Amino acid sequence: MNIFPWQTKLWEQLMSAPDKLPHALLLAGPAGLGKQAFAMAMAARLLCEAPLAQGEAGALACGCCSSCNWLATGNHPDFRLVQPEAAEEAGMDEGEQEASAASGAKKAKPKTARVASGPIRIDQIRGLADFVFIGSHRHGRRVVILNPAEAMNPAAANALLKILEEPPASICFILVSDSWRKLLPTIRSRCRIVVFGRPTPALAASWLQAEGVEDVGSLLQLTGGAPLLARDWAQQAVLTNYRKALEPLLLTQDGPVDPVSMAAKWGELLKADSTFDLPQLVDIVQKWVMDLTQVALAGSLRYHLEPAWRDRLEALTKRSNATALLGCDRDLRRIRAVARHPLNTQLFLEDMAARYLRSLSVKNN
């Protein structure tokens, strides 16, 4: 299993002396940077019986020994992957997709990504007890990957904490998290935190172009510079839905100007494409409001750099002020917590539209 180009330096820092790795690592950073693929590559290297050299520091798994073959087929006796049960039932998981992309393997277009919204339960952590406290089958390291670590419910987190307090010498826990601050402070304190940063725009664009992705600039802007997320958006035609979802927010002359009609537009979009869900819509509205706020406060943009979007953002900020927009952003963060399971989708959409329109009805003083 290979790593992505923007991970080379971090890999060399960690894997130049794999025998000195701590018993627990926390791979933290935004989604779409390849943390799970990195974790799988680490597991493969720690379990590999004949690692390959990579430059002056670090090494990759050979991919040919019996250990690598077992790991590739999901049957390695010294490896465990703990993830929400919903992800386990979804076929190829995120780690397998990332690892396949990192290795350059050619594959058919993947299925639509399913968000593992369920928790990691206590019985899944308790099930690790025999694995952790019984010796290695291959007389080497044993590896446990938890992804996403923040999905552990409180009981599971406490059960893991007990294991991390007195772990055997040969075990290595690799926790992967997009929201690592949600983890218990006591768990974070027992892990070495490895923060993944975004690659440079040039490196990310070069990798995406090699993957055959078009409209690279817009995709990287809207995904916050996360290459894997940008690639997934391109494969799933998310950018098309993004533009459609923005149309009601533009408040052009022909667009909806009241919460009910705005919500109706969004409702039609959600029904037309089953891969486009409510959390994605809330994320789009949040990014738009965030850019409105940045224009009002500093005259700058983060996501919507296309000229037509920029012009519309500047026009809309004249109808509001930063205080009202900050309030709208705060409201969106609050309602996002229930976006996956709203009691009534139509009322949820109307409420979100009303909050947005209300923030634009407060003129600057």
From TrEMBL:
Q: Which UniProt keywords apply?
A: DNA-directed DNA polymerase, Nucleotidyltransferase, Transferase
Ubl conjugation: is it a keyword of this entry? no
UniProt lists compositionally biased (Acidic residues) regions at 87-97
What InterPro entries is this protein classified in?
DNA_pol_HolB, DNA_Rep/Repair_Clamp_Loader, P-loop_NTPase
GO BP term (any one): DNA-templated DNA replication
For region Disordered, the annotated ranges are 87-112
Gene3D superfamilies according to UniProt: P-loop containing nucleotide triphosphate hydrolases (3.40.50.300)
A GO molecular function assigned to this protein is: 3'-5' exonuclease activity
Transmembrane annotation, as ranges: none
Q: Name one GO cellular component term.
A: DNA polymerase III complex
**Does the record's keyword annotation contain Transferase?**
yes
Q: Which E.C. number(s) belong to this protein?
A: 2.7.7.7
- What's the name of the protein? DNA-directed DNA polymerase III, delta subunit
Q: What organism does the record attribute this protein to?
A: Sterolibacterium denitrificans
Q: Which gene encodes it?
A: holB
